[in-house]
Amino acid sequence: MSTRWVNIAPLFEHHQEETAADLKRLYNETCIDSVAFCCTLVPEANPPLNKAAILAERFLKMKELLKDCGIKCGILLQATMGHGWTPDSKSPFQNTVLPDGNSPYVFCPLGDEFLNYIRGQIATLASTEPDFFMLDDDTRLITGRGGCFCPLHLEEFKRRTGKLYTREELASLIKTDMDIAAAYDLMMQDSIIKLAKVIRQEIDNVNPLTHCSFCCCSHDAHHAANIAKALAAPGQEIIVRLNNGRYCSEGTRNIASWLNRTARQLALIPEDVIVLSEPDTCPQNRYSMGATQLNAHISMSLLEGCRGGKIWITRLGVYEPKSGEAYRKIMAKYRNFHAKLLELAPKWKGVRVPKTGTHSPMQYKGNGLDWGSSVLGRFGIAYYNSKHPSSVSMISEDAELLTDEEIIAALSKGAVVDGIGATWLTKRGFTHLLGAKAVKWDKPVPALEVLNDGSQINAKPKTEMLVDVDPKAKVISTYHSRLAALSSETAPISPATIYFENELGGRVVTMAMNIPDALTLGSFYFYNEKRKAMLIDLIKLVSDTPFTYHTGDAELLVKDGTAQDGTRILAIYGVSMDTVEEIPLSIPEPPTSVKRLMADGTWKEIAITQGDSGETVFIDTIAPLDTAVYALN
User: Fold this and answer.
1) What is the pLDDT of residues 248-275, one digit of tens each?
2) Where are the strands (E) in 81-124, listed by range?
3) Is the CB of residue 386 less than 8 Å from the CB of residue 352?
4) Is the pLDDT of residue 86 over 60?
5) What angle do helix axes 178-204 and 112-126 make, rounded to 10 degrees?
6) CB-side exposure of 312: number of CA atoms within 13 Å?
7) Average of pLDDT values for 154-161?
8) Residues in CB range of 494: below 8 A, 6 or more apart
9) From CA 467, how far away is CA 495, in angstroms rounded?
10) pLDDT for 459
């Protein structure tokens, strides 16, 4: 039995009736259709405490209290290997060993003693016949850990490759030798699958139809589907929860970066897998995550392609029911809104920020600087993250993560590449498709970027230098130096932006400048109206397809697409600190009427007018963290 909207709840020794009443309310008033009771099984003490026996008794009590309400009652295996927290009394099993030799309180999944302990714990919990299991994300070996180099793994790698390496040797080799890295990466996956099969076997011993889903961590996402398949009941849906929580977030401007992280994981998970989001408010109160932010997380995740969520809104460590009241109210208010978003299931279009569906085993690193997070998601230029080729792609540092085939596919169409992206493409041998090489800057710091029409933009950026420019390339702008701040005399230094039509028929704009990697005063060489206007012109230069964009200066994230039923959809996210009340948009095939999806799931027509430059102006209010969804006719 699968789950789509699962609330995580504690197994308190006391307050069981109150907890059950709250879960019934969530089931009746919100999208929640199931509850997973939190079972932390990581071994403690020597011999290990039989935690499952205590938790099973409490689970049976909760199951009895909820038997007539309709909510599905499952078990979250919140910790098996361990999240790293060290107890007062330790168990003696083999811990994982990090590349630097440190050994956190995380148990190696190859250890027979540990596996036997887990086998007994799962057998006890399975005997309570829960509706489902969910395995949480301490079952990872890459994210935050960089692998395991304990004696068990070193010996297993010897068995697979025929050579015994020391920890230091293997940790070094996986950074430089692709074959060694790939074999090591596969061993990490297989190690977790070994644990997953133990869990599945013990569930099968009681009921082979009991489903188990999997919660992945971001840099292990390429393993998620295979691990989830090992856990799932035969013939049932494969379900993976993404690692895209936003708790402890300080503002709105990282929403685009969070969407990028979400999309990168989605690209690594096969499209026939059911993906859940992670609306986690950890540690389950509003000092960490506001109710409006929770609603935005759920809404944006659904629009990105998630089909439900694992929701953490119930305080787990202590009984503090009032701290979650605002979460419950907003989820009840937007219940039908969330259901409608699931029904819409839009496909996005516009400017593409490329994602890869192929994982390099040596790339256990961050997302890479990308145009969506840094620029498009603030300028209001409609974009989407995708591994599928499109008419125009925006490439930056994330070029490092793309395969050669994905790069060629992008550069054979339309592309805009910034300096750091061009540097990566230069290193990888694609300068013949860019029209120039990008190398480290070694000239005087530019004061101005001068366009061919004579207009100027301040230029004191982090920049690369374009050299060996192809004679067929057109220089669009040039860096200039200036003797002094008040001097009117400037001198050209080098090309700043070029346009090139390459041998594959691709139209490529290459910029020497790097897009901003942080919001500082030094980043405003890019965050200004002239740069935005220039960027829109550059995208038009390489794109075959018109795209939607916000013509004003409000910070907005805009998405343009088509719903499952063919309806033209716009989504506008409030990533600004301002409340925006008029939204001028350049829209291909401008609409004659616009409706906004309301909290109750109904559509309400909003007023639109025509701006001075022909834009369609939405007369509507978008507050910070709003997810405004419009149907265009």
Assistant:
1) 888 888 899 999 999 999 999 999 999 9
2) none
3) yes
4) yes
5) 40
6) 24
7) 98
8) 443, 465, 466, 467, 478, 479, 512
9) 8
10) 84
* pTM for the full predicted model: 0.93
**Helix (H) / strand (E) containing 572:** strand 568-573
At a CB cut-off of 8 Å and minimum separation 6, what does 499 contact?
A: 435, 473, 474, 476, 507, 508, 509, 541, 542
State the pairing for strand pair 594-597/557-562. unpaired
Task: Please determine, for residue 363, whether its predicted confidence score (pLDDT) is greater than 70.
Answer: no
* d(C-alpha 368, C-alpha 350), whole Å: 21
Q: How far is CA 206 from CA 36, 59, 135, 239, in A?
A: 19, 16, 17, 21
| Cis peptide, bond prior to residue 591, ω within 30 of zero | no
Residues 6+ apart with CB under 8 A from 506: 411, 412, 413, 414, 415, 433
Q: Check residue 391 and give its pLDDT.
A: 87
Model confidence over 367-402: pLDDT tens digits? 678 999 999 999 999 999 999 888 899 999 988 889
| Cβ 128 vs Cβ 56: under 8 Å | yes
DSSP state of 180: H
Residue 269 and residue 241 in contact, taking contact as beta carbons nearer than 8 Å: no
Do the beta carbons of residue 615 and residue 584 sit within 8 Å?
yes
**Cβ proximity of 119 and 80 under 8 Å:** no
Which segments of 248-382 are extended strands (E)? 274-276, 309-311, 347-349, 351-354
Short-list 138, 144, 137, CA closest to 98: 144
CA distance 366 to 345: 28
Please state at what angle helix 291-304 crosses helix 335-344, rounded to 10 degrees: 20
Q: Where are the beta strands (DSSP E) in 68-128?
A: 72-79
User: Average per-residue pLDDT in the chain?
Assistant: 94
Long-range CB contacts for residues 125-129, cutoff 8 Å, separation at least 24: 125/39, 125/52, 125/55, 125/56, 125/59, 125/75, 126/202, 126/203, 126/205, 126/206, 126/207, 126/210, 127/56, 127/206, 128/56, 128/59, 128/60, 128/63, 128/75, 129/206, 129/207, 129/210
Q: What is the pLDDT of residue 206?
A: 97
249-258, 264-273, 415-424, 534-543: the lowest-pLDDT one? 249-258
Sequence-ordered list of residues with C-beta below 8 angstroms from that of 303, at least 6 positions apart, any chain: 341, 344, 346, 559, 571, 627, 629
Which amino acid appears at position 320 of this protein? E
Q: Is 286 exposed, middle or buried (0-12, 13-18, 19+ CB in 10 A)?
A: middle
- Residue 111 phi/psi, 5° resolution? -75, 120
Is the pLDDT at 1 greater than 90? The verdict is: no
Burial 586-611 (b: 16+ CB within 10 A, else e): bbeeebeebbbbeeeeeeeebebeee
Q: Which residues contact 143 (CB under 8 A, 6 or more apart)?
A: 137, 217, 218, 219, 220, 243, 364
For range 244-249, the mean pLDDT: 89
pLDDT bracket for residue 605 (50, 70, 90): very high
